[in-house]
Design a protein that fits this description.
- Strands 1-2-4-3-5-6-7-8 form an eight-stranded mixed β-sheet, with helices on both faces.
- Helices cover about 30% and strands about 15% of the residues.
- It is built from eight helices and eight strands, in the order E-E-E-E-H-E-H-E-H-H-H-E-H-E-H-H.
- It has helices at about 70-75, 95-110, 135-145, 150-155, 160-175, 205, 230, 235-245, and strands spanning about 1-5, 10, 20-25, 45-50, 85-90, 115-120, 190-195, 215-220.
- Helix 6 links the parallel strand 7 and strand 8 (about 215-220).
- It is globular, with a radius of gyration of 17 Å.
- By secondary structure, the protein is an alpha/beta fold.
- It has one domain (about 1-125, about 180-245): Rossmann fold, CATH 3.40.50.
Length: about 250
């Protein structure tokens, strides 16, 4: 295992010299460990890194980020990770917004990633259809579980749910943060993954990611619901490998 200088990025399986660096961003409440085994499913020339969020994992000594810009500041403190290979982002749900906002910040700093892949989140061009009820633990859990927005493993373990709920709430509050639409279009291809069974995201909200780039846009639809990266991982990784291979051509 290795890290960048402030441990905001984690690499579980070193693959120095790989042509492609895939940097992953987890859903609300998640962290780098959800990507621990991804190298096993991806092509040999892919080096997988994962972002940590303040307040947990390798950043457990840090306070929660209260703004998206505060969160992004962790990742731009060491820019070396964004050069030396083809750079591809994958962000899932809340992580899709983090990946997009980081891509915009990197663009402003003169660093262009090669492909932005997002999954299971509405485009930042689209407002939320329903406000989440952050004031009540029970109402928030009920609301999220109704739409399949909490993994079953948490719903089945009260102690684990109580531990992760503050992290989930903070991430979701950031997820509701309004994105400035000035200069919001990127210059790299965007691939948006979605599932017809995902009750949290409508097809039109996924298609609106096409408005976030001047380059090409593709929507890949999979079965599996909100967490298709786990529920339909074979097909998901088949598609990711095609995207990664194409990024080097």
């Amino acid at each position: 295992m290795k890290f960048n200088t402030n441990k905001s990025m984690v690499n579980y399986q070193d693959n120095d010299g790989a042509k492609i660096r895939l940097i992953c961003f987890a859903n609300a409440g998640g962290g780098p460990s959800m990507f621990r085994q991804w190298h096993s499913f991806l092509n040999d020339d892919v080096d997988v890194w994962a972002a940590a969020y303040p307040g947990r994992d390798t950043l457990s000594g840090e306070l929660f980020a209260k703004t998206m810009s505060g969160l992004i500041s962790y990742y731009i403190s060491d820019l070396s990770i964004f050069s030396g290979a083809k750079i591809v982002f994958y962000g899932h749900s809340f992580g899709a917004l983090v990946a997009y906002m980081l891509a915009m910040k990197l663009r402003d700093l003169g660093f262009l990633i090669d492909v932005l892949c997002v999954g299971a989140r509405r485009s930042p061009m689209m407002p939320p259809r329903e406000k989440l009820k952050f004031y009540s633990d029970k109402k928030l859990i009920d609301q999220l579980s109704t739409f399949g927005g909490i993994p079953d493993i948490l719903l089945e373990d009260d102690d684990m749910l109580n531990y992760f709920l503050p992290h989930i709430r903070n991430d979701l509050e950031l997820n509701e943060e309004t994105v400035s639409l000035s200069n919001a279009k990127l210059d790299m291809p965007i691939v948006a993954f979605s599932s017809p069974a995902d009750l949290l995201v409508l097809p039109k909200e996924i298609r609106a990611w096409g408005e976030c780039t001047h380059a090409s846009f593709e929507n890949i639809s999979l079965s599996g619901g909100h967490f298709f990266i786990k529920n339909n991982e074979r097909v998901f990784f088949d598609q990711m490998n095609k995207i990664l291979e194409k990024s080097t051509s």
